[in-house]
Amino acid sequence: MPDAITATRPVLLRRVGAYLLDIAVLFAVLAPLGYGVQIALGIDPAAATARSVYITLILNFSIPAWLYFALSDRSSRGATVGKRLFGLRTQAKAGRHLGFSRALGRTAVKMVPWEMTHASSFLFVPALGEFAVGNMVGLGLAYALSFVYLFVAWRTRGRQSVHDLAAKTHVVPADAVV
């Protein structure tokens, strides 16, 4: 149940805060874990290639993050840790909970800018740390798409962004009856 302070903040600000908190939690958990896996497997980070970094990102960050968002959205609370702390939840029409396929589809669209950034920074680079024009274009498109997602959320007062429109979901205060 959201407290009085959380309840007075607009859904958009709460939603942005929840997402940033979720990303921070994911990074705090997954970064040390990934480093530990590299040590356990005898992988030398100093000898990494762009492709090996990309594969590591997919296995250690992308897949766990996708599962975290999809499973959280399809949970009975319809919320990630960040959404719960900010008093929000994701729901389908008429207040119904999301099924896993809808939650996964929502997550797939949500993560497009994230995955474009990974691919543009590591998969399609000439070498680790080297960027060509195409890489800069890919990064620019990823950032532009992030702003489109934020703009759409702003236009709907935080209730829907691009991934919500695609999945036919919306984000509401946790105590709302819609």
Low-pLDDT residue intervals, each spanning 5 or more residues? none
Large-scale geometry: globular
* Oligomerization status of the protein chains: single chain
Radius of gyration: 18 Å
How big a fraction of the residues is strand? under 5%
Distance between the termini: 16 Å
Q: Provide mean pLDDT, rounded.
A: 89
Please work out how many helical segments DSSP would assign: 8
Spell the H/E element sequence.
HHHHEHHHHE
Structural class: mainly alpha
Report the major sheet: 2 strands, antiparallel
Strand order of the largest sheet: 1-2
The total strand number stands at 2
Which bin fits the share of residues in helices?
A: 55-70%
3D structure, described in words:
This protein is mostly helical. Helix content is 66%, strand content 4%. The protein is built from eight helices and two strands, in the order ααααβααααβ. It has helices at residues 4-8, 11-41, 50-74, 81-85, 100-110, 112-123, 133-155, 162-167, and strands at residues 88-91, 170-173. It has a two-stranded antiparallel ribbon with strand order 1-2. The longest helix has 31 residues, at 11-41. The radius of gyration is 18 Å and the shape is globular.
Key attributes of the depicted protein:
178 residues; mainly alpha; two-stranded antiparallel ribbon; 8 helices; 2 strands; 66% helix; globular
Write a compact overview of the structure shown.
The protein is mainly α.
Helix and strand arrangement:
Blueprint: H1 4-8, H2 11-41, H3 50-74, H4 81-85, E1 88-91, H5 100-110, H6 112-123, H7 133-155, H8 162-167, E2 170-173
Antiparallel strand pairs: 1-2
